[in-house]
# Entry
Amino acid sequence: MNLSYLQSIIKRGEFMESSKRVKVIFTLIFLVLFIFVSFTKPIIGLITNYLWFSSVNYKELFTVQLFTKVKIFIPVFFLISLVVFIYLKSLVKNYFHFVEKPLENEFKRNKLISLVFSIVFGFMYSLNFTSLLWMKILMQLNKFNFGYQDPIFHNDVSFYIYTYPLMRSVLDAVFMLAFWLLVTTVMAYLILIRFYPPSKDNIVYLNPRNNVSFSSIANKKVYSYMITKVTVIGSMIFVLFALSYYLKTYELLFSSRGVAYGASYTDINVTLVSYRIQMVIALVSSVGIYIGFKRRSLKLSLVGPVLFLAVTLITGGSAMFIQKFVVEPDEISKETKFLEYNIENTQRAYNLDKVVEKEFPVDQDLTKKDIEENSEIVDNIRINDYRPLKQTYNQIQGIRLYYKFNDIDIDRYQIDGKYTEVFISAREMEQNSLDEKAQTWLNKHLIYTHGYGAVVSPVNKITQNGQPELLVKNLPPTTNTDLKIERPELYFGELNNDYIVVKTGEEEFDYPSGSDNKRTIFNSDRGIPLAGINKLLFSIEENSLKMLLSNNITKDSKIIIHRNIVDRLKTLTPFIQYDENPYLVINKEDGKLYWIADGYTTSTMHPYSQPYVTKFGRANYIRNSVKAVVDAYSGEVNLYVFDKNDPLIKTYSKIFKNSFKDKSEMDKYLFAHVKYPQDLFELQARVYKSYHVNNPTVFYNGEDVWDIATEKYMSEVQDVESNYLMFKLPDSKKLEFLLSIPFTPKEKANMNSLLIARNDGDNYGKIVMYRFPKDKNVQGPMMIESRIDQNSEISPQLTLWGQQGSSVLRGNILVIPINNSLLYIEPIYLQADNSNNLPELKRVIIAYKEKIVMEDTLEKAIDSMFSINKFDSSSSQTDYTNTDTTTSVISDASLNELLIQVEQALNQSKGDIDKLEELINVIKSKIK
# Structure
């Protein structure tokens, strides 16, 4: 061998070593970049979240979650990683007993691979385990009892709300671990066999032609050892099956097999027994599989699983047979006690067991005097409707394209000393409505930062052209009442979905003033400072290079995020469900604007409670336990507990000790504007349609099922919405702000009851059901609609308006109790058939007893209705001989109205010519 040849070999070796070093370097660089990209964004998100929670003074909500996750993650990570590493190390070590001994560096490499795999697996598994279980663990550790038990296993309901979900999740996690260990075992052996085949002793040529061979002895031992590992894991899985069937016994309380939700006759007498048998068989199978493998007895190994499968099939078939041929022929007697459990627990879960039922006689004996004595009710009868009103507000008070009224809320205020029901809406900034050229980063994030003011109008006042009479209006807000707004800027609202930066080198647009714009600077210490590294962090978090490079952002600048009210609250407390419709309140004491949002605690795990699909998802337990108040200017949040008896909110309050306040700490003026939420009330009404019944036989037969009354709204027939109205309850002399919804018997139009939720003072949250007499035909809203359509005076007029380039819009029918009578009100709108249409209130229809009138205003309709009523021959209180009274009543009416009265008097007087002549003489005197 010459020298040049040796040199070439050496050089080639150096090149190979150099190549390996380059590969290692590139591999390390790739790993570093991968880790940086994978973890940088989450870490930045973690830091920016901490800064935000701190800025809103709810750091506890962040730190409790973070520290709890860390406390769970670290031990689970080390435990899982260690178990997997020891298992893999043992597996590899035992495998190499059957193959040629590998080199020392290969031992190290395999050990390193096992360690890396164990760490990665442990990290991913622990991360998933922690994210799923952290809140369940906290709830279990801080739980409160419900104070009543399920009727089958006699556990406090808290067991199913807290303990059972945790046990189920832990068992699922262990199942997942066993599954991945099984997969890892098989994959590890296949990889080892591929890279480290068995030794070449005792070669047997299976196919000499293709020269395919392997060591029969070594392979038998390898596969035998692999099967042993798989068998042990399989045996463990059957233990888990036994635990799973133990938990499945509790799941029967959420069964939908029977006539009502919850465990039924078949579930208790067949399925429960089968689950307990299967639990025992699963344990026996676990032992049998392992012993059978050790004894090389396939029969012994399979007897347990086969028996398990057989029992599953037999009991499943038996349950179907029992249900079909034993229960269904005698269902009512078999299921009676289970129906009782369902009724009782459903009423508890939806808080319907607190409903107070009262009788409402529906005497229908109102007089003009009754109306006058209840003038405060009449003065608050809602004749405007929120949907047409929203369009009207946007047209007459939008001022600029970028302002929008997103929602119309109903509330009550003491205005100049008078308790008044009003509509209120915030004038918010919709940045996407800016001119396309103006939608720059600077405008959207630094200049056009906030909405401005609100519009308020009484529910029953209109102008001469049918538009709402405005109490608060214009920019800046003006009013002739004591309802003044001193801080009209709205930095937080329902449309604010993007971040803004305040206290920058640019002044913010405040509101338009003539041909000029007023400017302002955010005057609050809220927000996150963008000094130092914060500017870089939020530039990355918001994917905004302009934020990083902008010279307008100074050391004094602050970023404001989560400006949407619902998003802000959900980010703070994701374990509470929030109403998607927060409402605006003007605080007369400080002149500031606030948002109030309703928060709910919900669960799907209340035994024997019928689940319903809500706006927050499926649930069978719900409480309106939280009222959140958000300052529309600064974004300050306060969370108040309104249901101290709810075990869920008590648990959350114990976990987050400093985050929730008692309702007694709420500002007294804001407290006066708290409302019972419509979403919850309408859900309770849906449940109450069936669950007002306590008798299981009546419930089973559906003898007393109700419907929510229907109405013709606009041009469609729909269920009547719940309505906030102001009237006096029959047993109260005080005007109240109430939420009501009417019921009818199933598929009938007559009304049989009125469900009412109280809102004011100490009566807040109390629900009353007023039942109407069964021996009277009380008209429902749809009956009134039909009578309107059949009325020879009203129906042609509505048809005529609808043919003259306009659309007739029919508002909600309102059912107004006055004394022991019911008054029905429906507003009629006209809307031009063009793109710039503006709905105008043109008529008000009132129905009472057998009479319907339609007038320009509510006052005229009331006057006309009860003037007509004076000539009702069925009324014992009518004095037709009192000409002065008749004259005084008629004096306010138009000639046309007088002639209408003549026609009606003719129809109602049944030929009493003297009475008719008396009225005609009055009309003649008026004409002269």
Remarks:
- The longest strand covers residues 418-429.
- Residues 201-217, 868-894 have pLDDT under 50 and may be disordered.
- The chain is about 45% helix and 20% strand.
- The first helix runs from residue 3 to 55.
